[in-house]
Amino acid sequence: MKYIITILTMIAFAALMALIFLYAQIRFDAYKIIDYAPKLTTQIYDRNGELIANLFDDENRLYVDYKNIPPRLIEALVATEDTSFFEHSGINLEAIFRALVKDIHAMKMVEGASTITQQLIKNTVLSRQKTLTRKVNEAILAYTVESSLTKEQILERYFNHVYFGHGYYGVKTAAHGYFNKTLDALTLKEIAILVGLPKAPSSYDPTKHMDLSLSRANQVVNRMYALGWISEAEYTKSTLEHPMVYDETLTRNRAPYVVDEVIKSLSTEYDDIKKGGYQIYLTIDLKLQHLAHESLKVGYNGMVSRMGKDANASDLNGAMVVMENGTGNILALVGGIDYAKSSFNRATQSKRQPGSSFKPFLYQKALDWGYSPLSEIPDISRTYVNSETDEEWKPKNYENDFEGLITLKEALVHSRNLATINLLSLLGLDSVYKELKKDGFKNLSMDLSLALGSFGISPLEYSGFYSMFANYGVRTEPMLVKKIINRQGVEKVYETKTQTMTSPKQSYLMIDMMKEVVKRGTGRNAQVPGIEIAGKTGTTNSSVDAWFCGFSPDIEVITWFGNDNNSPLKKGETGGRSAAPAFKYFMTKYVELHPETTREFKIPEGVESRKIDGTTEFFTDVSPFPKTNNVKQLKEDSGLMF
């Protein structure tokens, strides 16, 4: 007797534990539906609200609240899948009995009787396999869910969770993907196609099986008409309709270099960047982004054609950054000629020597320290010896000549290396180096080669420094992300950072000098009719890097070309020949797109002018007009022989 009692006790205990486990599992599954928090696709938009890309891991899902689901869409679903949805408590007993009779007759499970609630459960927490155990769990869960959620909440979860084929999760995603439409813009036939998809997403995918998809959609329309939920006119029109269906990539990535940079810059702040359902608004203008890429291709093709049989098209590449002067907004960012061949972002990741394009920063120091554009500096050759290695360095001008004495303006206009090195020596290497470090420059050379830009910097970082010229002395940090809205609708707005580097009047002296670079100097190929352009070319030793850094009164464009393996470009491929034409192409098209753009630089208060031989020269109280004995004084101060 004791043995029997023991056995019964063990059986009862096992049954109790099984019930407890089943209850715990059902409770856990129910909470996954009740406290619904799916993975949501993050969407990236440009400054005009144009979609740039969808970001997601394994489920591409755009969420829609119940209030924004069209009533006709709800009617189509209920008519097709569960006509008594609003009357039952999760289980349709009449439908179950009808299906059971058919299953017994066929001696196997041939017909389901799932309500919308059960379908939601099946798609969310249970398998699709037709077993008795799953059906029992499904029924219990259905009652649990119905007692915790309203019918509207259940429908909202259904429409957002169900798979609609082609990689689209949720009805909003499917509407955008298949039809390029918002839910409220869908026709009845398009609604019918969507409602028919969850039953067999692959079989009814309209991008692959349009005939089957239309046939299934007509069944949905027939059912709605049979119930009297649509008129005969609506029925006729819908059955004859053949909607336009799109077959696009899931990500719809229209600016891959930009998207990569967004992910990289935001991942530390948002670890759920690809599943958190964020709306990210960028400063990028898609039209200008495409124009920047087109402009790079123009420059690239020109270089390849000039190189002829010596062209190494696989190594040759480029980058372009376009920024709004006053705001720091990045309007375009292109990190290479062809993203499909190389995703390496040369605009943000590549550290290249800026060469002579760095000279304006030294000349600005000279102006701020009392020199004027007409101050004369020695353009002579000298040999420098490294005290530690005894190695000699004898820099030269690109033209292999020297002028003796030359004004600051002419030295910059014609990019005279010797004059710039001598200027740095006159200003004091230590003093200039410390000031440039204070300004934010990194990895600078602590020797006179600093005058020729002998350090590495990315085009994006460089654009921030260059903004001090375009923005009248105020350096503006480049900004890519304008605002982020999370799934709860909370906004985070980003503001750009600025740093005053010099005064507007001193900055204008440099703007005028850089305008001359484009008018008659090394940057002549960057001229754009009808608008003032200022800028500076940059070419490093052996033409390894070719730059043009230019700006109009409204925008700045940094352009770079070079080989990925750091090998020299063909002789003669300077910044003025290679990069300036790409800049010109961009600016010419930009002015066509934006005829309202400012055409002339404004002269700030405190800038004076004087006519010298028919040419207007500018000066300030900090950079006064030179005295007549300037040359003699310079010789005495410099200690250099002429």
Automatic annotation (TrEMBL):
One of its GO terms (molecular function) is penicillin binding. Pathway: Cell wall biogenesis; peptidoglycan biosynthesis. Its main location: membrane. It catalyses: Preferential cleavage: (Ac)2-L-Lys-D-Ala-|-D-Ala. Also transpeptidation of peptidyl-alanyl moieties that are N-acyl substituents of D-alanine; [GlcNAc-(1->4)-Mur2Ac(oyl-L-Ala-gamma-D-Glu-L-Lys-D-Ala-D-Ala)](n)-di-trans,octa-cis-undecaprenyl diphosphate + beta-D-GlcNAc-(1->4)-Mur2Ac(oyl-L-Ala-gamma-D-Glu-L-Lys-D-Ala-D-Ala)-di-trans,octa-cis-undecaprenyl diphosphate = [GlcNAc-(1->4)-Mur2Ac(oyl-L-Ala-gamma-D-Glu-L-Lys-D-Ala-D-Ala)](n+1)-di-trans,octa-cis-undecaprenyl diphosphate + di-trans,octa-cis-undecaprenyl diphosphate + H(+). One of its GO terms (biological process) is cell wall organization. Keywords: Carboxypeptidase, Cell membrane, Cell shape, Cell wall biogenesis/degradation, Glycosyltransferase, Hydrolase, Membrane, Multifunctional enzyme, Peptidoglycan synthesis, Protease, Transferase. It is found in: Cell membrane. This is PBP1A family penicillin-binding protein. It comes from Sulfurospirillum diekertiae.
